[in-house]
Write a structure and sequence with these properties.
- Helices cover 28% and strands 21% of the residues.
- Among the domains are: 30-96 and 162-167, no CATH class; 97-150.
- It contains 7 helices and 10 strands.
- The strands form 4 sheets. A 3-stranded antiparallel sheet has the order 3-5-4. The chain has a 3-stranded antiparallel sheet with strand order 6-8-7. Strands 1-2 form a two-stranded antiparallel ribbon.
- This is DUF4283 domain-containing protein.
């Protein structure tokens, strides 16, 4: 790709770069068949994405068939798929609104019309389309359609991932330890406390023990005298 100098446009003393539709028309044609895909709350490797694409869409020829045959999941995480648009922006478009698959189980067959599905889908968001099975009435139990739903997930600006925030306040907060206060141990001294005997025991708890001891001694002594 060879580049060349283009004279600058100056307006009110500032350089202004003007882009026209013709400047972007070539790349718009290249990206018109592209599909935007990301996994909510996870960052799989490139190899994982390649294996997922090969197993799901190896024989798909039209990009719309990929969108209509959803929903998809990877590692039990929802896979969001959107058609590329010229004004595509990852943060504003993908994270602001997502195409959400809505299942309508046991919907009566006479309600499988465009007008009915539009009214039901409008209760959630902006209806986009129904999948191929619903359009062809190949499924009997469940009616599926895509609804554009406003979504504000948790987004980490530090590592640019969805589903968490890298902040210190999210970590477990360690409780402050209480201040240790030294207390002077209480000494059971018979010289300062008349309720304590010479062995450091409370005399009130030893009532009767001395009498029993005396009785034992007297019996022993009386027995020896006899």
């Amino acid at each position: 790709m060879n580049l060349s100098y283009i004279p600058r446009v100056i307006q009110e003393g500032e350089v202004v770069v003007q882009l026209t539709e013709e400047d972007m028309e070539e790349e718009n044609g290249v990206w018109a068949q592209a599909i935007v895909l990301y996994v909510v709350g996870n960052t799989p490797s490139i190899g994982t994405i390649e294996r997922f694409i090969g197993s799901q869409w190896n024989f798909v020829q039209k990009p719309k068939d990929i969108i209509f045959k959803g929903p998809y999941s990877l590692f039990n995480r929802p896979v969001i798929i959107k058609s590329w648009a010229p004004n595509f922006n990852f943060k504003e478009e993908v994270l602001g609104t997502i195409p959400l698959w809505v299942k309508l189980p046991n919907l009566p067959r006479n309600c499988w019309t465009a007008s009915t599905l539009n009214k039901i889908g409008s209760g959630l968001g902006k209806p986009l389309c129904a999948n191929a099975y619903t359009s062809n009435m190949e499924q009997i139990m469940t009616c599926d359609q895509i609804v554009e739903y406003k979504w504000r997930p948790i987004y980490c600006t530090k590592c640019c991932q969805v589903g968490h925030v890298c902040r210190d306040e999210n970590l477990p907060v360690e409780k402050p330890r209480g201040k240790k206060v030294w207390r002077k141990p209480r000494v059971l001294d018979p010289n300062t406390n008349p309720l304590i005997d010479d062995k450091g025991r409370y005399k009130a708890q030893l009532v009767g023990e001395g009498e029993k001891g005396k009785e034992k001694v007297q019996r022993r002594n009386s027995g020896l005298i006899l």
